[in-house]
Amino acid sequence: MEVPFIRKTLRKTAPLGVLCLVLLSGCQTIRSLQPALPASPVARPVPTTFAGPDHVRPDRVGPSDSVGIAALNWRTFFDDDNLIELIDTALTQNLDLRIATQRIEQARATFDYSRGFLAPQVNVVASAGVDRYGRNTLNGVGNFDTNLSDNVRGDLLIPNPTPDFFVGVRSTWEVDIWGKLRNQRKAAYLRLLGSERGRQAVITGLVAEVARYYYTLLALDGELEIIQKNISYQSNALELVRVQKEAGRVTELAVQQFAAQLLNTRSRQGQVRQQIIEAENELNRLLGRYPQPILRGSSLQSRELPGKVLTGLPAQMLLRRPDIRQAELELQAANVDVDVARAEFLPSLNLTGYLGLNSFRLGTLANPASIAAGLLSGLSAPVFNRRFIRANYRGSVAQSREAFYRYGQTIVTGFSEVTTGLRGVENYRQVAELQTEEVTTLTNAVNIANDLFRSGYATYLEVITAQRNVLEAELALINTKQAQFLSLTDLYRALGGGWE
């Protein structure tokens, strides 16, 4: 008596047992198939201060100085109405910035797409088909016997070929029991945030690039002023030596030397004008417009840098630099992708269902008796495609490691750029002070040489050398001033300023 009972019990519980075995084997698959990978990389500690001059180190300033220049809005930092107007134009018309905006839209669409998988997929369906069953098939024999029944008459008789009409809805839904779909949505959301940070990085680079070209133009304007001033000096000297030649005090050689020097300086003037055209065209390209003159203020000769440059704390740079934040979000998304790939080893639960009107005669399709509904659930676990899933998992892990190293590389680059800009501002300031003294000394030397030349105590070669030296010194000074402003602009961008 016990044996039939046991058999009956086993028949009832066998499907449940098979289901449990599938679930347990699926859960163990990830442990047995997960490839051997090296240990997770360890992040290097971030320095607590920037390696800058003593008077600008954060640990040497007061609490009120803990916020660096990056906290300033670019309209405040660049105190120049012409430059502010140019930056406004660039932020409105620059094509790179518009491309970055479209990347955000792409990421937003991907996020919205990933959200759709969490809800059942419902489709409205209207279908029609026909099947001809052979007499030796299951349906053929079944339909033949059904039509012989006394209960089947008229429209209930099954024709052969048998039409199949359906109007209704069909639904499929993967139940997210392991969090795979939720993680896909999370990764897409992190990448959406990363694309927004990427746009901010484009803005910081664009603001800094516009400022660099603007200061380059101001430096070239300064070179033109210097060259024009020296052309006047050299023209006066040429007239003087011509007078002295007529008086018999110098020869034609002296006149030719002064004339050659004047021609050389005038040729430099033409070269600088061409450089101005090139810089204006590059700036117009950033502004997203065709070549046209750039409205700007006074040259760099009359401009001075701020007396104190504050960097703030390195932790503030990590929070402010958009490229670092973007790399961090990309790393988080890559780590989530690893969880998604790991979940592929586990069984998936899918539900399918339908509700509608189904009939093998078109005339009875609208009959309430044709209402049909169905629901099917199923578990599927990978068996023969484990190699592909394992390869996908290893690829996801490698991409996660790449994102980790890229994140660290971005931080190292940030510290390097800050240190370079900070040292550049200070070093170029010292160079400019020395070159200013040099220009003053050489200017006095030119005046002395001219006086001595008129009195006959100096040769014309000494006058030419003095004029050439002061020209080179003034040009070197204006180039150093340009390097100062460029270093300050690069420092502002390196600290994460310019995107607000």
TrEMBL record:
It comes from the Bacteria. GO terms for cellular component: plasma membrane. GO terms for molecular function: efflux transmembrane transporter activity. PANTHER family: OUTER MEMBRANE CATION EFFLUX PROTEIN, OUTER MEMBRANE PROTEIN-RELATED. This is RND transporter. It comes from Spirosoma montaniterrae. The lineage of its organism: Bacteria, Pseudomonadati, Bacteroidota, Cytophagia, Cytophagales. Keywords: Lipoprotein, Membrane, Palmitate, Transmembrane, Transmembrane beta strand. Belongs to the outer membrane factor (OMF) (TC 1.B.17) family.
